[in-house]
Design a protein that fits this description.
Elements (H helix, E strand, L loop, with lengths): L2 H15 L4 H17 L1 H17 L4 H7 L3 H16 L7 E6 L5 E8 L2 E6 L4 H12 L3 E5 L5 H17 L8 E3 L8 H7 L7 E5 L2 H10 L12 E5 L5 H13 L8 E7 L3 H12 L4 E4 L3 H18 L38 E4 L13 E7 L2 H11 L4 E5 L3 H10 L4 E4 L19 E2 L7 E2 L6 E8 L6
Parallel strand pairs: 3-4, 3-6, 4-5, 7-8, 7-12, 8-11, 9-10, 9-11, 12-13
Antiparallel strand pairs: 1-2, 2-16, 14-15
Length: 465
Amino acid sequence: MNLEETYKILRKGAEVLALQNAMQKNKVLVEVRGALDRERARILKANAEDVKRARDAGVKDSLVDRLSLDERKINGILESMDIVIAQTDPVGEEVAGWKTPNGLCIRQVRVPLGVVGLIYESRPNVTVDAFCLAYKSGNAILLRGSSSAYASNRAIVDVIKEALSGVDGGVPEAIELVETKEHDHSDVDAILNAVGKIDVVLPRGGKKLIQTVVQNARVPVIETGSGVCHLYVDESADLEMAAKVAENAKIQRPGVCNAIECIVVNRKVAEDFLERLVEKFSGRVIFHADEEALPILKEAVLREQIAQNADGGKGAECAAGAGSAGAEGAGSSGDSSSCRRPVSAASTKVVPAADEDFGNEYLDYECCVKIVGGVEEAIEYINAHNTKHSESIITSNMKNARLFQAKIDAACVYVNASTRFTDGGEFGFGAELGISTQKLHARGPMGIKALTTTKYLIEGEGQIR
């Protein structure tokens, strides 16, 4: 693939798109949506090839889940497109306007970024989300997915380009997919150094990918972060609520970036809460416990085993369903992925936490447990170990809740809710390009406005300075 030629094609596409109005872009997106709906069998066939290769290679279930498509997920993708199509076009929006004392009329308006590069792992749904958001906001997009999802991405992009070519006003030059090869990342290096050809690059994936992009890019980067998310259970928390939220935030889809990786517990409620947690997580999660939590968890597991034996060996019910139209699937019904692990206290594993467990992104049925003396200590610990993504406190003390929200350094800070809601779909954006964990330009779930910048339009009547 000739990337230099690809950059020129994308720039041409961006220039054409920048002149189109919302009606023109929406008409095209409706046609693309229809094509994706009609060609779902073709897309699912390609995806099945990717999934089979992943399973044959021994990829863990939580990551295969990120790669997999099915009828429900395609329905979710199409629903996301509907929401984006219905949204107000940000291009041309007047952010501010005023008249200077010398009579100049100044307007600050939104404009597209231009040519956007997205480097991402697995997640074929991101291919559609990224295209839809880019097209609606007037940007051309270069997609560099992972080799593990190449068949799926190729099928999706082919369907999109065919639809763009077949509809009046469509801009097929607005999307290109890099032909990825396993273990060959030379194209990534080229994209990261395409100064003047790529206007911005967004990495979306694990810690290693994000670090590679941030450390090596010479083009501007909007950094999306890996998700080391925490749940803090305060001393005033409703412990049943806390256990339910923890179950959803950890187990519903453990392989996504808004799942929690560490549960922080106030010492005053640790014994009661951890016993409830063992019951909820029974046999499904490996606990990496700090020195104080370790004996409490082991004792709770022993009690749960005795209780289950007395009950005839029955395990806990499967719980915490999943599913969403959004990119991170932050909904609360429809998926039984949490039932893939054995549900029995006899299989519950509690191990001493190593230093590297605190701040680790497991992306699996594992989490660490940390006991603290109060909300201030919890805040200090979380800020030292998080990735600025999403954090939550369960509490009945609104003073502690407001302190937590004020002092926690993260894109999204929750009170009495699961971190799984950090998602473009759940925030009403329809789709997202990722969760930005930086503080400049965009932060949190990135919808269509995140793909725009502003410029000043000044009109005068011959004024000179």
